[in-house]
C-alpha cells in the first residue's frame, strides 16, 4: 500500500512546493522554495521566480494589491512587487486586480499601465496612489441646512488627501483621508466665506469600502 500527495503555493515572495510519498516500508517528504530578488534604486523587492524581461510594480504605500494574471502575487508592505514575465518588443499590460475596491484605505488614479520593453529590460509600472480612507460626507451648517453647492473642500494638515466640491444636497466625497482630521469649506467671491468641521472615522465600512458620515460645518 502506498500513495503520494503534493502541494504548490504561489505567494508574493515566491513559490513553495512540497510532496509526500509513502509505501509500506518507507516515507519521504520533499519541499522547496523558489523566488527572485530585484534590487533597484528604491530598495529591494522579493518576488516569484524572475523571467528575462520584467516590470517593477510601484504603488507607493498600497500593500496587498493583487496583480492580474499573476497567481498569488500582490504588492508588499511598501507597495512594490514584480511582474515576473513580459513579452519583449510587444505591448504588455500590467493591471491591478479589481478587488482593490474592497480596500477602504486605497484609492488609485490608474489601474493599468502598458509598456513595450526590450529583451532583458527591467521596466517600471507605476500606479498613482492615495493611501487613506474614501469617505462620503453629508455636510450641513449649524441650522441643519446643506452646505453651499460648489463649496471647495480642503483637508487640513495633510498632503495625501484629495480636495473636493460639495454637491447640491451637501454631499462631499473625499479620498486619501487619515482616520481623524479637519476639513475646511470655502465659497463665495474669492472664496472668502469659510467653515470647518472635524471628523473621526469610526463607523463600519460598507462592502464597497466607502465610509459614509454626517457632519456639521461651523
Automatic annotation (TrEMBL):
Occurrences of domain PapC-like C-terminal (ranges): 136-202
The protein's name in its UniProt record: Fimbrial biogenesis outer membrane usher protein
GO biological process: pilus assembly
Any one GO molecular function term: fimbrial usher porin activity
Coiled coil (residue ranges): none
Pfam families documented for this protein: PapC_C, Usher
CC terms in the record's Gene Ontology section: cell outer membrane
Lineage of the organism: Bacteria, Pseudomonadati, Pseudomonadota, Gammaproteobacteria, Enterobacterales
PANTHER family listed in its UniProt record: FIMBRIAL USHER DOMAIN-CONTAINING PROTEIN YDET-RELATED (PTHR30451:SF21), OUTER MEMBRANE USHER PROTEIN (PTHR30451)
Amino acid at each position: 500500500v502506498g500513495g503520494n500527495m503534493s502541494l504548490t503555493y504561489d505567494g508574493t515572495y515566491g513559490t513553495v512546493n512540497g510532496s509526500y510519498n509513502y509505501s509500506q516500508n518507507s516515507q519521504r517528504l520533499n519541499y522547496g522554495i523558489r523566488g527572485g530578488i530585484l534590487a533597484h534604486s528604491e530598495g529591494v523587492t522579493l518576488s516569484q521566480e524572475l523571467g528575462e524581461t520584467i516590470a517593477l510594480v510601484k504603488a507607493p504605500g498600497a500593500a496587498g494589491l493583487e496583480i492580474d494574471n499573476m497567481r498569488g502575487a500582490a504588492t508588499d508592505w511598501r507597495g512594490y512587487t514584480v511582474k515576473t514575465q513580459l513579452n519583449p518588443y510587444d505591448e504588455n499590460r500590467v493591471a491591478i486586480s479589481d478587488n482593490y475596491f474592497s480596500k477602504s484605505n486605497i484609492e488609485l488614479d490608474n489601474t493599468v499601465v502598458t509598456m513595450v520593453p526590450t529583451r532583458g529590460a527591467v521596466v517600471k509600472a507605476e500606479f498613482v496612489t492615495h493611501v487613506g480612507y474614501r469617505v462620503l460626507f453629508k455636510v450641513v451648517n449649524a441650522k441643519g441646512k446643506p452646505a453651499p453647492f460648489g463649496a471647495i473642500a480642503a483637508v487640513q494638515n495633510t498632503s495625501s488627501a484629495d480636495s473636493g466640491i460639495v454637491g447640491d444636497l451637501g454631499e462631499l466625497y473625499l479620498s486619501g483621508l487619515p482616520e481623524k482630521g479637519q476639513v475646511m469649506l470655502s465659497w463665495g467671491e474669492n472664496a472668502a466665506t469659510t467653515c470647518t468641521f472635524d471628523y473621526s472615522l469610526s463607523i463600519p465600512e460598507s462592502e464597497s469600502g466607502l465610509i459614509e458620515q454626517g457632519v456639521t460645518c461651523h
